[in-house]
Amino acid sequence: MIDFEKNYYTILELQEGATIEEVKRSYRRLVKKYHPDLHPGNEEYEVKIRQINEAYEVISNEEDKAIYDDYRKRHKEIKEKDSKTDPLKSNKRQYVREKTITQETRIYIKGKLQIKYKGVYIEEGSVNFLSEVFYRMEILEVNAEIQSSDISITDEVEGEFKSVFEKFQPLELDLKLPVKSVIFDGEKSVNYALNIQRVTIPVPRIEKVTKYDNESYGVLSGIFYGYISSFKTTIEEEIVTECFGETGRTETLEEDGHKYYRKEYFSADCTTYWGEWVRIETRETYVPTGVVENKGNYYRNQYFKSDYKDVYWGKWNYNSQYKATNPSGCLGGSLGWLTMLIITVIFIFIFPALIFFLLFPAILFLLALLPPSILKWILRFFWMALGCLYLLGFVSLFTEINKAKTKSQRHSQNSLVQKRQIRPKQQQIIVKDSMIVNHVKWEDYSENTYEGTYTVKSADLRSSAFNKLNIPIEATNQQNYNRIIHTLKEFDQNKMGGLYSMFDSIKTEKKLDQKAFAESIVSFVQSIPYTLILPKDCNPSLYQDEFTTKYLTSVDAYCEGNQRFGINSPVEFISNLKGDCDTRTLLLYTMLSHYKYDVILLSSSHYKHSLIGINLPYAGIRFPYKKSNYSLWETTTYKAEAGVIPNKISNLNYWKISLKSKIK
Fold first, then answer.
1. Residues 21 and 112 in one domain
2. Residue limits of the J domain (predicted)?
3. What is the pTM of this model?
């Protein structure tokens, strides 16, 4: 019995449609390989040999093979036809993607905490700890002592820790992690630097308080509870199914006498959405009906209108293959060509010489036809115009004489100093470079409004783009990427004078301090609408990462493709105002470095994102490096403040420094 669902050719390790001789040869080879007598007790080989025998019985028989081949051929044709008619099958793709799974393990700790602080007297925004009611605390030093018996490793908070976290709020102080900690195990002690999270002191004490003027110094201490996060990362492979393109469905409507249509598209998750309505422009079809009308040497065609019901006539066209209805034989044709030749010679060689003699009598003839009253005014105007021409001639002659004298005097003076080099006379072409002018207006985080206009030289834009195209590096790894963005920054940093001038004026006019000026720069970049910059065309089928394909298939996607490295240089960005996270952080790094800020550019291959970090005293998430802490800043969200980073990209273990400014 033939099982049409099985591929007998694959079982026998043959190509589809192999000959019977090839079937026999392959069968003998496989029997020797999988025969149970050669592999006693191997159940897998027993199943394999049964499949081989079944396949051989069918496709070694000419009649059964013909029936089997015919079925598979027709089934393949039907399957291909279905895939062409079903847009979901043709607009779907699958690929294997690596998925990073991060598992957090928390180590809960309890111990003694000692915080040395300086308090500045204020009336608002203070931390209420016992008698220190109206002081804002600035942390000077933090030390912790922990017993090894008070350390608990668990996936869920429980017991004493759970009770404390539910009852008390964590300290609202910037402890400047990591905390200097000593862990005691019996008589042994080990020093650590710990990133303790959610530090909670149920009963805080303030001791050793010293007050001087409007400042207060003291020590905040107590038993603290907190935890340390430990992350374990594993990489798994998953099969991703994505859809793209049109579904083939359309809708039409009529409104105010106009027709509109829209198309349906696939999203990346294979759901569908409708595109925007597009107005249908009515154009003539230019489909001929087959009817032709002739008139002399000319003809015209009849065409269908757009509704294919009514018709209209096209334009008259000259028929180059038209023949005279009364030919005069060979001689008549020769005389016709001779006549045309004589007329052509007269027109080319004789008429131009006669035109000057004929022009003056023609003018007199036309004037004679005019009424005397009109002719009188024409003559008056003629003599007035002639007098003006003579007057202009005298003025021009006098001016040229003065210029010649001045030039002669200058020439004689220059000759006394240095003899001029004689050069061939040539035309001097002065090319004035054009300017790109951008007017911008935005608000910072305190709703302060900034407005200004800056310029970029078109020549600088061209040189910046040329530099990017000719960088002899490919972005194959993180190190090369760092070298590329450093090269772009170094080349462009001195070509942004127009933008620097605008911000210099803003800083002077608004009297901005260091923090406020940094906020004006970052909020300016954040206010520019997001545009995805890609190394290839803006076609979602060319990319495999989920963010790019999903963004490009969204209705409000903005993209600039075919940009090397998938990034715009700083000069390109301030010229066309098109940039994504990499482009924005590179521009901010260039600008903040110019204004002598201590700044870093962070990149994450895990998150496929880029952030800017600045060494200023902001609260929130900070990136520790050596003895400094850099407040992280998201650049793609308008008015996102320093230190406010989404939780999904907040694991600092996945961030690396790509660029760091040098403070002079």
1. no
2. 7-72
3. 0.40
